[in-house]
Design brief:
Residues 122-141 are annotated as: Disordered. It holds the Pfam family PilN. InterPro entries: PilN. This protein has four helices and four strands, in the order ααβαβαββ. It is α+β, with helices and mostly antiparallel strands. The radius of gyration is 51 Å and the shape is rod-shaped. The chain folds into two domains: 14-95; 97-195, Gyrase A, domain 2 (2-Layer Sandwich). It has helices at 11-95, 97-109, 124-127, 152-165; strands at residues 115-123, 141-149, 168-178, 187-195. The chain has a four-stranded antiparallel sheet with strand order 1-2-4-3.
Length: 208
């Protein structure tokens, strides 16, 4: 019969020795992991710092491009506004020709006591008479004016006033006759005026 071995080492000491042994075994592993994590964190921080620096550089480089884009958008907006304004101006100039003519005639009537009775707008090409020698179609507008005045002298002054306005390239007296039954405005007349295409459409209050 073999004698049994009795372990007289206290249990607490045994456990402490096991803990120390486990600590010595795993300490290098944990230190390695901690070192790797620290290195990874430092590398990540370095990458983040580099990214911030790169982003800052890119922002500095892109800032002039943003300014150029904004300026281009502003210029495009101004260009579109100018184009619309020019188009409106052209349309208004075309549509204001009769209005400018009427204003000019009205201004010319005032100082001479001429009464305008009718105002008819015609195309210059449609008003030309091909059966007359030397007549030809011309671009532009004609207006036919019918009215009454005190005398032939007043009609002549009215024609001179219209010619002096510069809006018409020609002012022709087509007919004049007595106004039967009218004491003050004794003469009736008919004028044909051709609009001067190079003249401004803004009427003026006085003659040239």
């Amino acid at each position: 019969m073999t004698p049994s071995k009795v372990n007289l080492v206290p249990v607490a000491l045994v456990r402490r020795c096991e803990h120390v042994s486990q600590l010595r075994k795993w300490a290098p592993v944990w230190l390695g992991v901690a070192a790797l994590l620290t290195a990874a964190q430092l590398l990540l921080l370095s990458r983040i710092e580099d990214a911030h620096t790169t982003l800052s550089d890119l922002r500095q480089r892109v800032r002039p491009l943003h300014a150029l884009v904004e300026r281009t958008a502003t210029l495009e907006g101004k260009s579109a506004t100018l184009t619309r304004s020019i188009n409106r101006r052209l349309l208004l100039e075309q549509s204001d020709v009769p209005l400018a003519m009427l204003h000019t005639v009205a201004f010319a009537c005032q100082p001479h006591g001429v009464r305008l009775e009718s105002f008819r707008l015609e195309d210059a090409s449609s008003s030309a008479q091909p059966d007359q020698p030397g007549s030809r179609s011309a671009p532009g507008k004609h207006i036919v004016l019918k009215g009454s005045a005190e005398s032939d002298v007043t009609v002549s002054k009215f024609i001179s006033e219209l010619r002096g306005r510069g809006l018409f390239s020609s002012v022709l007296l087509e007919s004049t006759q007595d106004n039967a039954g009218a004491a003050a405005l004794a003469r009736t007349f008919q004028l044909r005026c051709e609009w001067n295409v190079s003249a401004p459409t803004t009427p003026t209050a006085g003659g040239r």
